[in-house]
Amino acid sequence: MKIWVDADACPNVIKEILYRAAKRLQIQLTLVANAPLQIPASAWIESVQVRSGLDVADSYIVQHMASDDLVVTADIPLAANVIEQGGYALNPRGEFYDNGNIRERLSMRNFMETLRNSGVETGGPPALNSRDREAFANQLDRFLAKNRK
Length: 149
Hints:
This protein is of the alpha/beta class. The chain is about 45% helix and about 15% strand. The protein has five helices and six strands, in the order E-H-E-E-H-E-H-E-E-H-H. The protein has helices at about 10-25, 55-65, 75-85, 100-115, 130-145, and strands spanning about 5, 30-35, 45-50, 70, 90, 95. Strands 3-2-1-4-5-6 form a six-stranded mixed beta sheet, sandwiched between helices. Helix 1 links the parallel strand 1 and strand 2. Helix 3 (about 75-85) runs antiparallel to helix 4 (about 100-115). The protein starts with a strand and ends with a helix.
């Protein structure tokens, strides 16, 4: 099992949690981004810089992941593709996307995008808080304890 991170929009505090987990449990962690990343020196952590463009990092992750890999992303279409490929998708707020909730999330995302495109200001998600960080860390720990081979 490998952990992939859609790193362009992933909060630094979440990356730090992932760095510690990868080193502690010796699990390969790959961060994919359009821009260069500063990552800690570790045999377990790597970054991949892809060219700029819409969904280039997402496509790279989907093309290179294996079933049963974990992808950390807030990008709902990417999460849907990960699930379709047999992987797991966890958002930085500690919520897993799965077959039971991804269609609803895609519908809501598309609806909000339609509103924004018609000029309605919808605002963005609230800032990540300590409860979100704790939820993410707890979900990650439970997932890794259960799924690590």
